[in-house]
Amino acid sequence: MANRRILFQLSGREMGGIETVLGNLLPHLKNWQIALCGNPGSGLATLSRLANRVFELNEQTNWKEIIVTFQPAIAVATSGPIMEWAAFCRSRKIPVLWLLGASPCSQPFELTALAHTLFDHILVPSDFVKRSLAIDSQVSILPNGIDCSLFQPDPKMRPTIRKSLGWEDHFIIGYCARAMPNKRHGDLVSALQILIKRVPSARLLFIGRTENKMAIEQYQRINEQISRHNLDDFVIQVSANPSQVPGLLGAMDAFAFPAISEGLGCSLLEAMAMELPTVVAKSGGSGELAEKSGCSLLVKPEDAQALAESLHQLWQNPALRTHLGSQARAYVLKNHEAKTVAGAYSRFFSSLSRSTKPKKPKVSVIIPFHNRKKYLRAAVLSCLAEKDPIEVIAVDDGSTDGSAQSIEDLPVRLFSHPSCRGEAAARNTGLKHCSADFVTFLDSDDLLCPEGISWRLRFLEQSTGDRAVVGAADCLIDENGNWLGPVDLHFKMPSNIPEKIDFCYLARHTRFHTTLSLYMFRRDLIQRTGLFDERLRLADDIDFLFRVLRIGDIPAFNKPVMRYRVHSENQSFSKTDARLAATKRTLGEMVLVRLSHGLSINKSDALTSL
């Protein structure tokens, strides 16, 4: 156990949030050799002193080399730019855990949408965060922990700090939080404006760091509100180091926590450990904790009047303050003491590193592309949003526009041709590397529909005799992904679509049901059919489908699979000279394909098939 290695990735700019959680946990992870990887900053420097071994990522350091050198048994992503980091770890068969301390709504959309694909497991501090993720199978709740030996009342220090603030005989209300909009500092300022009319001795102490531009701008807005209400003499803002926070909390008479949508605020736990009575907005994980513990007064979120009323109640009733404070510390000692919580984390890390094996993908999605930088990422993301285990195999067919770089941070198996060899060759490269039992394709400028893979996969898994299935196109979309209308606006579909597509139907209606993205195949069917004919540059998909239908019919359903994108480079829709030239080439190839499959050919049939 002592040789187990764990690597944490974090932003490291300042302490707070998930960095505070790690600061409490790291000293107690005795059975792990710990390394940190992140941007240099005060937060990372603080955490470095608590880790067994430290890597600091800066402009001269390659984080990929750190991962390869350290070879962790498990990797933990916390904050910062983690998508590429997580994808790289998984590509090296390293189990990846996401330690998510904040509400998912505060995270980049792509990150939360792909969480089930990027991470083997996700650890969250509250049921609120778990519900917000809307993922059940790979999410566990482990609470935040704090050092209760550090956060405990010190009656000797209290008078000294109150005197240094100039508020020896005042009713001091405190709040410790980063300056962010969801922290709702302004609600507390508005509550103070109401409260001082009844409690002239009320004072407000804000504790928070001001190390980044966003925090500075937020504090400027708070200061403008304070000045506008003539409260400059009633409010003090302190930019404190973590080591100074316990003393400042000890100077307070009450602690307010008006933040909304919090995962589980560490500062609330710290205040409770200091035996402070707390007033908490009934929102997020912090609100749920306050309600469960019964140690706080709960108020409606974003309600300054209710906040002022509860603070007035605490000012009026010293006995209530004492009762709530003592109950709060007992609750934190039982449920959030760092040493106990760290033990639970350590056991979980151990179980994950021992038991996690990469899930075998059920479906391989092959995306060939050539100079599709504008659309490729969206196509890949539409696949990765699927909940079933899939692998996306992207094949760069000699692109010169940097298309491949647009998906390097995504969990994609990327293969490249040094020069353009054609779509058939790119599809064959994908087929040679796929590992799933089922295979489908997607053009690099189109989008997969939600559940576009799932319903086809369920059908083939439950069917004993069928080796392929075909669905329908959902709609047309423009260059920006906006809805343009049903596909029938462009393709006049035949009135009677059979329940199964057979060889004769495709021969009569070659224009319809030839888009490979609509199909899903069993891999053993493709092994029998053979690869795409690389001599064909434009009709290889039709030749392939003819060979598939020689083996058997394919069930057809009017269920959406993908969305066609209409743009200037799309040969199916454009009317350019290039399109006309492509039409002539396709016509020539179609003649060869039909003849090779024993089909007659005439001019009208050939033209209507395009």
In short:
This protein is α/β, with parallel strands linked by helices. The protein has 24 helices and 22 strands.
Can you characterise this structure?
The relative contact order is 0.08. The chain has 24 helices and 22 strands. A hairpin with a 5-residue loop joins β18 (468-477) and β19. By secondary structure, the chain is α/β, with parallel strands linked by helices. The strands form three sheets. Strands 13, 14, 15, 16, 17, 18, 19, 20, 21 and 22 form a ten-stranded mixed beta sheet that branches. Strands 2-1-3-4-5-6 form a six-stranded parallel beta sheet, sandwiched between helices. A six-stranded parallel beta sheet has the order 9-8-7-10-11-12, with helices on both faces.
Question: What labels would you give this structure?
Answer:
single chain, alpha/beta, disordered C terminus
Number of strands: 22
What is the tally of helical segments?
Answer: 24
What is the general shape? elongated
- Which stretches of 5+ consecutive residues score pLDDT under 50? 573-580, 603-610
Kindly report how far apart the N and C termini lie. Answer: 65 Å
Give the secondary structure arrangement, pairings included.
Blueprint: E1 5-10, H1 18-25, E2 33-38, H2 42-48, H3 63-70, E3 74-77, H4 83-91, E4 96-99, H5 109-113, H6 115-118, E5 121-124, H7 127-133, E6 139-141, H8 157-165, E7 171-176, H9 185-195, E8 202-207, H10 213-228, E9 235-238, H11 245-250, E10 254-257, H12 266-273, E11 278-281, H13 284-293, E12 296-299, H14 304-316, H15 318-335, H16 338-355, E13 363-369, H17 373-384, E14 390-397, E15 413-417, H18 423-433, E16 438-441, E17 447-448, H19 454-462, E18 468-477, E19 483-485, E20 500-501, H20 503-508, E21 519-522, H21 523-529, H22 540-551, E22 554-565, H23 577-596, H24 603-608
Helix pairs in contact: 9-14
